[in-house]
Amino acid sequence: MKIQLSDNFTYGKLLRFCTGPVLMMIFTSVYSVVDGIFVSNFARDEAFVAINLIFPVLMIMGAFGFMFGAGGTAVVSKTLGEGNKKLANKYFTLVVLTTELVGIILAAAFFFAMRPIAELIGAKGVVLEDAVVYSQIILCAMPFFLLQNLFQSFFITAEKPKLGFVFTVASGVTNIVFDALFIVGCKMGAAGAALGTALAQVVGGFAPIVYFACKNSSLLRFVRPKWNGKVLLKACVNGSSELLGNISMSLVSIVYNWQLIRTVGDDGVAAFGVIMYVQFVFIAIFIGYCLGVAPIVGYNYGAQNKPQLQNVFKKSLVIVAVTEIVMTVSAVALADVIAMIFVSDRPALLQMTARGMRIYSVCYLFSGFCMFCSSFFTALSNGLVSAIVSFGRTLVFQLACIFVLPPLFGLDGIWLATPVAELLATALCVAMIVVNNKRYGYVATKRKT
Interhelix angle for 45-81 vs 142-157, to 10°? Predict the structure, then answer.
């Protein structure tokens, strides 16, 4: 039976509805991990270091897709909840076209700037050349990468999360096949990894365009758009937390790499790269759940259905808490096994990576709640609170910890920075939930008699 945004959500129905986006994000992260496995095992060490150095810079640009996706979804799902499907489709089409235009502008603006940027973040020699080649090839597909990130949100709003997963699988398989061809078969190193990723992004961004351009059974399809600056501004404000969050995480990754190069050299960057590949998979579960639940929250907020809003909020907290515990235990227990997949031929690096992963994995006890909190306020069209949470979590607390803890604890201080930052962010999230409950009523309060 088809699950609709207007349904009364039990735990089972909520999990079923969010399964598609969760699997979609997991698969996206898994093929990124496979990308790393191919490079670390079949290309020179410099290529692996180069990709991990320059990748955060590319993700800063990709963050605009998440912004338009999250912010646009909040606007469109609220409009659907108000019963105006025609207007919702106009907003949807406008957001998609704007995202594509932004992608083209970013690709053109940064193509020739990648060499000085790579030099600025510490790339030298062969690492520098690999970083430049990799980034310039990826930039050629940047408009499609932004659309791929955008459509991950809109497939859930369209009540087609499983179809979104199908397109993600197609993109992932494309990446894996061409990684094998270019990296293993043609021995193209970083350039081969970039070509495989770029082709996968084209598939992930273009296929949904074809679907929404044709007559379909979803809630959304492309129509003749009408310029509405106010709607675009609202989408940008609503999605600002996702933009700031992704940019902040990328900037923090750059600072992490800088600290690691200063502390232990390129091996530190390689170890951090492995930890980040693992994080992609684990955090993908939270991102997928947030993508799935956000349209439900936005719809019920638009319909002013407070009982259902309270129901979804309460059940989400339980689901997130259980997932956090399972993920933390799994990450700590599997640290050695995971590290061996990437760096089994270098004992010292293997030991460093496994220890770093165990310490870093404590962050999963808090990160899911913080991500849900930010996404929840975005879905309520409160971009300011969402941005405060995201900015504090991903930049302010992270930067403070990455500069304060290493002088006290050395290399372990670098691995501890994220867990401590997530703990501080949790306190901020609790404060925001308490302060804003009166306005939205997502937690039922007893009336005084």
Answer: 40
